[in-house]
């Protein structure tokens, strides 16, 4: 389904070239100050326009259609709507029978029997990350009300193997190709004990949310894949004091599925944009032949560049839900 | 929560040193042949006993307490129960105030206010993977009824950096330490279009389930983290025919969150067993001092060795749920 | 939460005097013909304007914002939006401190700490039944595709104790008061076996959905409360043939929580509109005194008159979900 | 599914003539004192043995298989198991082809393709209310920790139209038939604002849970069906003071789907036991003929007699869940 969360619950909808995209945020507490301006910084961070991003320009102005009154949340569902304006659907009509490699065109056509909105990826489009960013802004507000406030920050670790994103991007430009990257996310200020063992482990919930971001193909916590070559005595984080602070953070802040009071640290890999300027080959469903193929439409060269704010958003959404859930365990008086 | 799945839904319970561990499987179709013998091969694969695994020996005999009648599933919830027999809880009483590094001892104590069953990790124990394996057996039976049958196989890729698990294990034995590893899982025979875009993407659901297995700290699909250094023209899998078959499988069988008809391929990293024979340091909660610490109890040297069958189980559980869900989209007549 | 359903899942949002009201319908199969005109007959049935209904007139034009392409459903979430146009919020500003008896004003103020949108009941308003009716139209389309088609019809049984609604309404007009009523809903064409024992019984799911309609205070199936005075030999419905047809229908078409192949029959009671023209008494929160109170705003004299189409809608929503779920039990081959 | 609840979540399993029946209670806070003796009073209230109840006698001893340690809840799932001992399954084998009128025999056979456990109703049996009562005991403990404590009490209002249950039962005995009844449930001490508008209204959740009890065919809150003949000025409950206390309680303590600080009051109708001593007629599936039929097995004459404690249990389960959810709305500072 297109919903996620237990207490703080989001539902997304919309298509790349339809009337717009939007989200319903249910379960948000009443009384949080909220206005359109609050959304603009994160929306700007997600926006295209920089080198390597799509030339499609959208106003991306959030319209608060419900759940906000007198500049505060009311406790009722918040619906945020973004109109699509700068669509050029004709680009897509032509390539209806030529599923783009790396895109959902082919699988969507099979799954929905040909009824899918195929223009620009339709509901599968990265444009759906815009309402996710908007919900993330609300989630961050909830996290900032913690004591201490919870802070979530994501940044690019490498593009095309280069620590300097500009260098990685130059590689792609030189090769006339798209390129992948790695993004890291860190959350600080989390209390001990968020999450549950097994199916609601912090890792389970975060991974679930993170893989809903198009183009993400892997996630690792703390030492991650390096742990495969570590000894237990290396990997274990020695507890230093009663706050749970550890000497190292190979666990990435999660033990037994629960936050342990140290920074939550994870990394994701973003595949190269499927729409590369290079000529490729794919099946023509009408002719039944594999044919050369060139991308139509306007696209990012490196989608990883726009991922950090989306990654922060889904992380904040998961953590806000866990923070709200955590407030309902009152009969747990300390035991000697 | 301790439940997972939408149609085929599991709920686990139990503790390492309590009366036993178990699982309820709800939403299983009626009419599937099922008896105790069906469970034994996978249970045997999970069992301890080989070099590098814990000397704790349990009978691990599944007791079918409900939902099975005349050797077939009835459509009602199936409860499977495993008694604990070979417990030596006294080992744990002594170390109550000394949270083991890498384990959930400390976070559980904070989260549950000291009321948690701390013996052998309690509800956080890897012993809870036993009922997961049992549910996996039922899920595999559902998958085998597909046309073609869906097959799920996991295998160890490396232990401590060695492709030969024996060599990796020897490293650990020589170092008197525990060691990590990487496990790969492949599912074949899947139809096109399982999963949903965004929150019910195949990657989201599998990652969610996989991170419920203790000790797993990362997951990657297809090319995974290597995608960060690939160009789009390299990573894209060219579609070759109307079955969706692609020339390469860098996507790991999932595009746009949906299965694409190619083998589903993903890898997970298993951290080294937290209980290493090496002396470590941790906080003594009573004295408030960081003190040297030696593991009590009986443990695996390399938990990765026992992961494959558990990974198959949670994968089969997710896929069985998706297969059952997929059967309810009938109004989707092909569209020209 | 503001969501309901397992496979066919709806999420409502909006306020009486905000920008509008809407609904997201997730899990609708692709390929169902759908356009604005399809919604108009049921929307017209719900509309005000007849004797005894509110003079507030709204265009109630559904805007299909997502999930529909080329006049068919796409399989992606369908968002339907209704703008509010004819709002007169000033009526409500004045009575902020005088919670209307029978309305949610007082409890909402406490629950949301004063941040609720109090204008015209805000999110608690009966106006939210408009998007429910819209979702009901889609659900009815799914039901009509069954073999045989499933038909859902609701009608007024009595108003103010009178079988002729006009007479009951005249009573209210004469008394210058609002009045209650009883509405019956019948669904035919249902297959045997929808629903589950216990928590997903057909009665549980229908009652859950029905009590989400404002003003409904009771529900009974088949013989309902009359069963309290019946003997078992009277109440039991004798099975007559292999289609499950019974001689009587005291069970209302549901046995053991499952549909039994006979018409589904239930009745609901609708309380008199809380906003009566009569002078009442309520607490003035500012003065702390109980004071006389007269209703401001525009209201229905008998809300039951507008309930049938809403009742059909929520019934169709529940049944469509159950029909879609029922299609996923394939391994259940007949057993001798 | 066989699960219910959002935070405090129960899952039932088992069959009337299988090994036993049980329940998993997930989401229960840690630190609640709990032992076997706590369950015995409510289990005794549900027990057979009095006049008009089945002669089948079971020990009904709860076995706490997980989630309890040192006589307190641990915060992990609590599994409670009841063995079946006094089963006489041979009674049922004989009537395999003769579906009992009023029972789920026929619909279950169709739904599960003949694979259902048909002995004594199998999973549809009223014996499943035993684990519900056990979960209710835990829920009541949570409610008792409120300030003020929340109290839930159910009682028989009438049997066969007689206010004195004994008289109603005598009617049935004289008629050699089974008989129905009405049970009322009242909860006091509830805070204002539990529940949500629409799908999580208190009425929706309670009705959902209540209709999971076999034999219940109707529910009404406060004035209930009498509201159909009331004027608004009669039905409205005038608010008297800032605690929300009202002059009357026609709403049954729920307004706008939320608790309003007054006692929660609702009534349910319990149909006459389907297994009546009277000879009835039903279809013989083998012969295809409608034939006379006499009940085998041991049964209650008036199941309503055993309903009150079950009704209390499901009510307490719903309210405990809502109390736990209510504790997570902290950003809702009072607004002037």
UniProtKB/TrEMBL annotation, chains A, B, C, D:
<dbReference type="InterPro" id="IPR020541">
    <property type="entry name" value="Chorismate_synthase_CS"/>
</dbReference>
<feature type="binding site">
    <location>
        <position position="298"/>
    </location>
    <ligand>
        <name>FMN</name>
    </ligand>
</feature>
<dbReference type="GO" id="GO:0009073">
    <property type="term" value="P:aromatic amino acid family biosynthetic process"/>
</dbReference>
<keyword id="KW-0456">Lyase</keyword>
<dbReference type="GO" id="GO:0004107">
    <property type="term" value="F:chorismate synthase activity"/>
</dbReference>
<feature type="binding site">
    <location>
        <begin position="123"/>
        <end position="125"/>
    </location>
    <ligand>
        <name>FMN</name>
    </ligand>
</feature>
<keyword id="KW-0028">Amino-acid biosynthesis</keyword>
<feature type="binding site">
    <location>
        <begin position="271"/>
        <end position="275"/>
    </location>
    <ligand>
        <name>FMN</name>
    </ligand>
</feature>
<feature type="binding site">
    <location>
        <position position="46"/>
    </location>
    <ligand>
        <name>NADP(+)</name>
    </ligand>
</feature>
<comment type="subunit">
    <text>Homotetramer.</text>
</comment>
<keyword id="KW-0521">NADP</keyword>
<feature type="binding site">
    <location>
        <position position="51"/>
    </location>
    <ligand>
        <name>NADP(+)</name>
    </ligand>
</feature>
<keyword id="KW-0288">FMN</keyword>
<keyword id="KW-0057">Aromatic amino acid biosynthesis</keyword>
<dbReference type="Pfam" id="PF01264">
    <property type="entry name" value="Chorismate_synt"/>
</dbReference>
<comment type="similarity">
    <text>Belongs to the chorismate synthase family.</text>
</comment>
<comment type="function">
    <text>This reaction introduces a second double bond into the aromatic ring system.</text>
</comment>
<protein>
    <recommendedName>
        <fullName>Chorismate synthase</fullName>
        <ecNumber>4.2.3.5</ecNumber>
    </recommendedName>
</protein>
<dbReference type="InterPro" id="IPR000453">
    <property type="entry name" value="Chorismate_synth"/>
</dbReference>
<dbReference type="GO" id="GO:0008652">
    <property type="term" value="P:amino acid biosynthetic process"/>
</dbReference>
<dbReference type="GO" id="GO:0005829">
    <property type="term" value="C:cytosol"/>
</dbReference>
<keyword id="KW-0274">FAD</keyword>
<keyword id="KW-0285">Flavoprotein</keyword>
<dbReference type="InterPro" id="IPR035904">
    <property type="entry name" value="Chorismate_synth_AroC_sf"/>
</dbReference>
<comment type="pathway">
    <text>Metabolic intermediate biosynthesis; chorismate biosynthesis; chorismate from D-erythrose 4-phosphate and phosphoenolpyruvate: step 7/7.</text>
</comment>
<dbReference type="GO" id="GO:0009423">
    <property type="term" value="P:chorismate biosynthetic process"/>
</dbReference>
<feature type="binding site">
    <location>
        <position position="256"/>
    </location>
    <ligand>
        <name>FMN</name>
    </ligand>
</feature>
<dbReference type="GO" id="GO:0010181">
    <property type="term" value="F:FMN binding"/>
</dbReference>
